[in-house]
Amino acid sequence: MSWYKFVVIQKPKAEVAATSALEINPQFKVDARTDRVGPATEQDIYNDRFFQQQNMSVNALDNLEARRYMDNRCVSNQCALIDSGTMGSKGHVQVIVPHLTESYTSQQDPPDKDVPYCTLKSFPATIEHTIQWARDKFENLFVQKPQMFNKFWEVHVSPSAAVEKARGGAMLDGIVKVAKMLKSRPHKWTECVALGRVKFEKCFNHKAQTLLHAFPLDTAMKDGSLFWQSPRRPPSPVKFDICDDNHLLFVITFARLHAELCGIPFTEQDCSVDVVRSIISTVVVAEFKPSSKHIETDTAAKKPDAVEVSSEVVDLSVCSLDSVSTTVSPGDLTMNHLSFEKDVDSNGHIDFITASSNLRAIMYGIEPIDRLKTKLIAGRIVPAIATTTAAVAGFVSITTCCSSLSLQWCTLDNFVVGL
After folding, report:
1. Higher per-residue pLDDT: 62 or 181
2. Which residues does 88 contact at the CB level (< 8 Å), separation at least 6?
3. Following DSSP, what letter does each residue of 80-130 receive, concatenated?
4. Helix orientation angle between 349-363 and 371-378, rounded to the nearest 10 degrees
5. 168 close to 196: Cβ distance less than 8 angstroms
6. I need a surface site. Which of 20, 31, 80, 351 has the fewest CB within 10 A?
7. Residues 6 or more apart from 210 whose CB is under 8 A from it?
8. Residues labelled as active-site residues
């Protein structure tokens, strides 16, 4: 068996599995396919005819989205499915047969217990909290905002059209955020780096100063106890250090990801420490100004669906759009959006999460962790246990063999393993 040889690292699992199976039985007939199973291949490769030609499908997937997709395809095409999976010392094998058993999506696992909104937003106490904050920050900056930006311009077409509608009394959802994004949109690499440096100051320095301004260290609760006591940790503003690797990692990864959003080309040389340091040395960072924004402290409070903005702020946003209406190009009204991918080291996603999480941890006096541990937590990766994998693989093999021997499906059982 060649599963754990170094020569198979970074090779497709299907090809490695096929090779290993042939080592055991050279007469085994196998076709290793590396096409992604999903909506993109639903019409031309893994279409309805493909599923209808199968006696059964066997799953060994690593995420719920893929499991639900395969379950839906097998159910709609009346194809039997054997779903399997492991999580640490736990494992399962589920037999899904049309008109005989429930499907995979018939039942839902209970939702994970959420961390209180105010804990993630302002009062983290563990490294898991800072990693989740960084993960949420990634989604907000590089997924949700670009999608919202594109949707806004699909509806309103141009700044002049949006301004005309707004001044005519129409309420334009997202106009404040869109105006801010359009005004600050970078057009070259140096501007991306500058934005990263400004974002550092906002997230890891000004945020701490805002909290300490609202709740000084000697703040007392109504019952006389101190506000800043366990599990709350008082933050300390992080002063940017151009020689600190973690500080530079945040700026570089932020700049890279923002450049991808805006379609700005950059090279490996552009991302080098020397080049980035020279750009940062010219950036002017605004002084801290106390904010009057409400800071949630109630652990029972949920994240608000939308933040209310005053009519004055909306008017300023309309004026901002009006001022750029004659200078923006059609390309300025679209953005790429990213999709978090933990397994591609070169994309900078985990590097951004690691830098952001560790800087926030330092700000709150929490012990930082390395990139690998951050990846495991951010990607919700549970280390595989060989015994569990072997047991589940054995149960899948038994079930598959029994079905191949034309045994009645109703005689086949589901298996649940808890070692």
Report:
1. 181
2. 382, 383, 385, 388
3. EEEEEEEETTEEEEEEE-TTTS--GGGS-PPPPPPPPHHHHHT---SHHHH
4. 100
5. no
6. 31
7. 288, 290, 291, 293, 295
8. 118
**Contact partners, residue 387, CB within 8 Å, separation at least 6:** 89, 419
- Sign of the torsion angle spanned by Cα atoms 256, 262, 265, 270: negative
DSSP state of 204: I
Asked whether the beta carbons of 120 and 146 are under 8 A apart, the reply is: no
User: Given pLDDT bands bounded at 50, 70 and 90, which one contains residue 3?
Assistant: very low
Q: Global pTM?
A: 0.76
**Burial bucket for residue 28 (CB in 10 Å: 0-12, 13-18, 19+):** exposed
Q: Which token pair is 20?
A: 């290993």
| Best CA proximity match to 56, nearest among 390, 396, 394 | 396
Query: How far is Cα 366 from Cα 73, in angstroms, rounded to an integer?
Result: 46
- The strand pairing partners of 93, in sequence order, are 84, 415
CA-CA-CA-CA torsion sign (203, 205, 210, 211): positive
Burial class (CB in 10 A: 0-12, 13-18, 19+), 240: middle
Give the integer Cα–Cα distance in Å for 202 and 286.
Answer: 9
198 — alpha (psi -120 to 50), left (phi > 0) or beta?
Answer: alpha
Closest CA to 358 of 348, 347, 369: 369
> Between β-strands 90-96 and 415-418, what pairing exists: parallel, antiparallel or unpaired?
antiparallel
∠ at Cα 200 (240, 367), nearest 5°? 75
Contacts of 329 (CB under 8 A, 6+ apart): none
- Burial level of 280, CB count in 10 A (0-12/13-18/19+)? buried
3-state DSSP call for residue 157? coil
Beta pairing class for 56-59 and 80-87 = parallel
Q: Cα–Cα distance between 261 and 143 in angstroms, integer?
A: 9
Q: Encoding tokens for residue 364?
A: 């709150």
Q: Is the pLDDT of residue 309 over 80?
A: no
Does pLDDT of 410 surpass 60? no
